[in-house]
Design goal:
The chain has about 260 residues and is α+β, with helices and mostly antiparallel strands. The chain has nine helices and ten strands.
């Protein structure tokens, strides 16, 4: 309820949806986990922006005026450019996780902004931000930390930062977000009995190395899940068919070796 109240106080016309929790309906068909709800509402009401939080309000994903979703990578990139322009971006550096898209990193590098990557999890992002004295970091999933305002992800603050950029530039969200090229990315989750370090399985390591030679331009990340008995295979590149084939090949080797 905080975000609608804040935006209303600032003079925005706010249409709140799925804002009546009953203790059981957290994330049920709404928010960051079900962005289709906010997409539908934006198009129905011809809104300028849609804001989706998760159940505890520390994540934010956005929907532009055309119904396109804007993830944490694009949110961070937009904010990083704005902060650098105003000389507010400490050390011209952004902290992100290994899951952030390579297109996001290449775009910021071209803009004179360094990207430091950490393990998945906002706690690791915050730790690295403190260690390297950075004031912007986050995850593709929408956990964005603006250290000048808060020491953790805050969905309302994230939304306000982007709205401020829209107001300052007089540009729609779709135009602001479109400058960040996002490479096709595929994620395959392979169930295993007990996730172990990939290095202990030579055949899996070999499959990843072979896949890397096929990929040429892009990135491969294979890691045990921190929350489920699964190995996550993430492949990025400039060709969707190629990365799908590569991800499936690696997943097949993991199934035959580790499952």
């Amino acid at each position: 309820k905080i975000t609608p109240w804040v935006l209303s106080e600032l003079g925005a016309e706010v249409i709140a949806i799925n804002d009546k929790p009953d203790g059981l309906n957290i994330n049920a068909g709404c928010g960051c986990t079900h962005p289709e709800a906010v997409q539908k509402a934006v198009l129905e009401h011809r809104a300028d922006i849609g804001i989706a939080h998760d159940g505890d309000g520390d994540r934010t994903l956005l929907c532009d005026e055309k119904g396109g979703m804007v993830d944490g990578d694009r949110i961070m990139a937009m904010c990083a450019l704005d902060m650098k322009k105003d000389k507010r971006l400490k050390n011209n550096t952004v902290v992100a996780t290994v899951m952030s898209n390579i297109g996001f990193e290449l775009f910021l590098k071209k803009s004179g902004i360094k990207v430091i990557r950490t393990s998945v999890g906002d706690r690791y992002v915050v730790e690295e931000m403190v260690r390297k004295d950075c004031n912007l970091g986050g995850e593709q999933s929408g956990h964005i930390i603006f250290m000048d305002h808060n020491t953790t992800g805050d969905g309302a603050i994230t939304a306000l930062q982007v709205l401020a950029i829209m107001e300052k530039t007089k540009k729609p969200l779709s135009k602001l977000a479109s400058v960040v090229p996002i490479y096709p990315q595929i994620l395959v989750n392979v169930p295993v009995k007990r996730p172990k370090k990939i290095e202990k399985f030579p055949s899996v390591v070999e499959a990843i190395e072979k896949a890397g030679k096929k990929l040429k331009s892009g990135r491969i990340l294979v890691r045990p899940s921190g929350t489920e008995p699964k190995i996550r295979v993430m492949v990025e590149g400039d060709n969707m068919n190629r990365i799908t084939s590569i991800a499936d090949e690696i997943a097949d080797v993991i199934r035959s070796t580790m499952a």
